[in-house]
Amino acid sequence: MSAGAEGFVHGIALNRSAGVRVGAKVRQRGPLRRFRVGGILHSVMSTTVEERRRAFEEEALPHLDTMYRVALRLTRDPSRAEDLVQDATLKALRSWEQYRPGTNVRAWLLTILRNTFINDFRREKTRGPSVDITEAEKFSLFEEVGDRDPEGRFFDHIVDDEVLRAIDQLPEEFRETLVLSDVEGLPYQEIGRITGVPVGTVKSRLFRARKALQSRLYDYAVEMGYIKRREG
Amino acid sequence: MSKKRGKPPRKAPRRPTRTAPSRPIDCEDAIEQLYSYLDGELTARDESAVRGHLDDCSGCFGQYEFERAFLRFLEARCRAQAAPEPLRRRIFEQILLNRGTEGR
Known about the structure:
The complex is a heterodimer of chains A (232) and B (104). By secondary structure, chain A is mainly α. In chain A, 50% of the residues lie in helices and 5% in strands. Chain A has 9 helices and 4 strands, in the order E-E-E-E-H-H-H-H-H-H-H-H-H. Chain A has helices at 49-59, 64-75, 78-94, 105-121, 141-145, 160-168, 172-183, 188-195, 199-224, and strands spanning 8-9, 12-13, 34-37, 40-43. The termini of chain A are far apart. Chain B is elongated, with a radius of gyration of 21 Å. By secondary structure, chain B is an all-alpha fold. Chain B has a domain at 27-98. Helices cover 57% and strands 0% of the residues of chain B. Chain B has 5 helices and no strands. The longest helix of chain B has 21 residues, at 58-78. The chains are: A mainly alpha (232), B mainly alpha (104). Chains A and B meet through strand 2, helix 1, helix 2, helix 3 and helix 6 of A and helix 4 and helix 5 of B.
């Protein structure tokens, strides 16, 4: 390869060892390698920024909704969530070479989103305090209402905003785990990879988050008169 | 937005293909593994043990149905939010701008 085997992929600098800015477009030295397939002239150097951009659009952008929803729960603020997604997307685009095609792009993107949040967004106090959820672990909503409402009909009265508000009151690591699992449907192992904890921790966080959420939603439903609190 | 999700909805536990020999478990064990069962995170063997218990125990089956309803409710309430159009536009513009001016 004429463009230098290390430091360059598709004519784009990957590291600083070559004495150019990372990400800088590198002028190709040596001839373009051309070959013909089916009468069409192909060039190996054609894998440039343009194709990279297209690959990014096709693979990464379908996960934009997921990134936004996770960002919303992390920041608890729509405008900051947008900024976070935008920053994380730009970072992902700039380090697209580090993504290995065929591996899990969603996990890769969510890891970047999470790191961006921790490094650039978490410092300022995110609005709204988190509740203490240690008590809620012992709570069993089924024991509370199962005999009266075995199908959980009272859930139907609770609107989106109320559920989201209840999630946002959970401590960060719990609401993060909950949204990755219960909203985005990620398996435990993938959640563990993204959040940097063992699968056992994911499992226990999820358990506690669900219990805490059930407890809050129950209190809310009682308050609103959707269901009566159990006697005694 | 009607985006295809990366994963099928609430992972319904697989139907037993061949019934792996699994020892019977009691209510406590079954309830402890209930969420993992609902999440499709158990090994085939453990899954069939839980399923076996749920088939025989109406109390635990009731709790299974209740928790399943809760998880479905949760998912339905939270997935309505999609990335707003202006954000989408900004990101596309960003990608276009970034072309040719790689790096900062």
